[in-house]
Amino acid sequence: LITFEVKESVEKPKATDFTLERELGQGNFSKVFLATHNSTKEQFAIKVIEKQRIMRLKIRHPNIFNEVNMEKHVLNRLRHPNIIRLYHTYQDATNLYFLMEYTAGGELWDALTLCGKQIGCTELLAKFYAADIVNALEYLASQRIVHRDLKPENMIVSKQDGHLRIVDFGTAKNLEDTTLNGPNFVGTPEYMSPETIDNKPVDTTVDLWALGCIIHQLLTGDTPFQGGSPYLCFLKVQAGTFDLPGFLSQEAKDIIVKLLKPNPAERLGADSFQALKDHPFFMGIDFDRHMQTSPPHPTTEDKFIIESAKQIFGYVWETNNDGPQPQVLVQAMALSHPRKPRLMHVLNRMQILQHPSIYPCFFPTKAIGRCQYASNRLYVGWTHGVQNEWKAPFDFVHVSGPDLGKSAAFKERDGLGGSSWSSELEQFQEMLRSINARDRIPAFVALSGNMTFATPSQRYYTAQLSAFHDSLSILDDKIRLVFVPGDHAMTQPNEYKQDFGDDYYCLWRGGVKCIIVNSSLWLHGLRANDSTLMERYLAQEAWLKKELDHGALCAQVLCIMSHHPLFLHDVNEDTQWIETQDDNNAPTRPWNIPKEARLPLLESFGEAKIHAIFSTNFNRSVHEHFQRHSKKPKHDNDDEDDAPSNDMCDMVVTASFSEKLMYNYIHVKQTGLTIKPIVIEPTPTSSS
C-alpha cells in the first residue's frame, strides 16, 4: 500500500511532499501543523523546528539540541497505543521536521473545561484517562524511559477512539543511554516532584508523582500545588501539603495521597505497576483490554452537576441576575452530599460561587451565607489565584463588633449574656445605613470582635445572633462581610466557625492581601496549659509565617487584621489591663497583646513590610504610625515595593461604639492606604 510506503519507507520524505494546513499547536521552539501528503492524501501532524530559532535559543537554553535529539531518539524506538507515533524526521535548509501520527482531537486540558473555566471531569472519565496514562508509564518504565514533563497539555485525546496519546519527549531521560539526558531540574513547576526541585537524580517514580498531580487535576480542575508562580509552587511541593475536596470518593483520595509521597520509593507503583493497577480506584478497569473500550458516558449525577453549573453561569453572566432564578438555586440549601459540595466546587472553579446572588443560596438564610465566606483558610472567590493582579483602587470599611447585649449583661450579671440589646442594635443599624449611603460602595466591611456579647453556650446568644443577622439586610448585597474573630473564637471555636467561618484566614482583592488572625490565641497561647489550645496557637503561627512570606513576595499592599491591638501608643508599652466590673475573682483581660508575644510579631511584620495593622478591642479609636522593625538588613532597593515610606506602618484601632459612633473608611491605592475616620452624627431617632 502507498500508505505503508509513506510511513515505513526507509527513504526520507521531503518537505515538498506535504502541504501544511492549519496550526495544531506550538511549543517553546516549534510549531505543529496538520499536513497532507500530496500523493497519498494521508494526514499527518508535522512538528516544524526553525533552525535559526534554536540557534538563538541556545544562548539561554544550552540543552536545546539535546532536547531535539532526545525526542527523535526516544520516539523512534517507542511503539505504544498511548504514545504518539513518530514516522520520519527530515530537514531542509531552514527547518527540521518530525512526521508524526495525526490524532484528531484536542489536548486533555480542553476536556477539563466548562464555559471557558477548568473544572475537571467526572470520576469515571478520570479513571479512564488515568488508566491510559498508567499503561503508557508501565511501557516507558520497561523501556527505561522517564518522561519528566507529564501534564494535560502534553496529552492529546483522540477523536477516533477517545484514548490519550502522550507527546513531547524533549525533556525525557534515558536511564540506560545517558548521552542526551539533560539536567535534573526540568519539567513544569505544578507537576515537578520534590526530588526534581532539589535537583537530584530521578527515575520513573517522578512520573508517578506527576500522575498523582494529574489525577487530582482531572477530578478537581486544579493541580494540588498550584501557587501562582514557580517559586510558590516549589514551596508548596516541598511542604507536601495539599487539599482534597470532600466530595471526592475515598478511593480517589487514597490513590492521590499514595502517589504524592515525598519519598519516591514509597509512591504507589514504585515497586510494581501491578500494585498501582490493583488499587480500588481502578476497579472495573481491564488494563490489558483497555484500548478496546470507549470513554464512559456521564452518569445522571454528572449531568445534573454540568447542567446546573451551565444554568447558574448563564444566570450570572448572561441575564445579569435579571431573569428567573434557576430552580437549582432555589433548592441549593437542601442538596445532599456529595452533590452540594461538588456543585459548589464546580461553581468556584468557574469563578461564580462567590457572587452575592449565588453563595448565600447554599445556606439556610442569606444572612448566614453572607457570614460564611471564610473557608479552608481562604475567602471564597477572593483568593490569590483569582485576585492576584492590581485592577483599580477600591474602598473598605473597618468596624468594631456591636457586642449585642453587653450593657444589659453588665447590669444583670447572671451569666446569661444580656437579655436586651436594643440600644446596641440601633447603633449598629445606623452604622450600616451610613456605610450604604457612601458615594462609593465599599468592596467589603471588616467586622472585628464580638458580634454578640453572649457566647454560644449562653441563653441569649441565639436571639442576639438572629438580631444581628436581620440587621445585615440593611447592607447592600454587593458589600462582602469579613469577620475578624473576637474572644468567642478562642473559647468556642467550633461554634464560632459554624456561625462566622474560619477563625483565621486570608483574602485577596486586586493584588491586596489581608491576613485575618485570631488574636485571642496570641493572648493565651504562650501561657497555655491546655494542649489543644497550644496546638491551635502553634498551627496559627506556622500558617501566619507562610502567609507573610507569600504576601511579601506577591502583594501590592499587605494588611493584618486582629481584634486585639498589638499596642496602643508605643511598641514597647506594658500590657494595658481592662478594668473589670465584676465583684468576683474573674481573671483580668488585656487590651493589647503582651510584650513577649508582641515584639516577635512586630519583627515578622516588619520583615514582610506590612502596610497597616487594623484592630479593635479598646475604648477609643487610635491611629498611630510606627517604624517597622526587622532583623533583616536593609538594601538600597527595599523601598521599591510601594510599602509605606521611611519604613512606617499604620496602626489603626477602631472603637465604633465607644466615645462616638464611628468607623474607619479605607481607600486602597496601588501605593498604599488612605485611612479616614467617619463619625456618624446622632439622629433624632438614634439613642446615641
Query: Sheet bearing the most strands, described?
Result: 6 strands, mixed
Our count of domains comes out at: 3
Q: Look at the structure and name the CATH superfamily of the largest domain.
A: Metallo-dependent phosphatases
Assign the structural class, choosing from mainly alpha, mainly beta, alpha/beta, alpha+beta, or little secondary structure.
alpha+beta
Largest sheet strand order: 18-19-20-21-23-22
Cα-to-Cα separation, first versus last residue: 95 Å
Shape annotation: elongated
Question: How many strands appear in the DSSP assignment?
Answer: 25
Oligomeric organization of the protein chains? single chain
Task: Just give the CATH class of the largest domain.
Answer: Alpha Beta
Count of helical stretches: 22
Mean of all residue-level pLDDT scores:
91
Q: What can be said about this structure in brief?
A:
With 688 residues, this protein is α+β, with helices and mostly antiparallel strands.
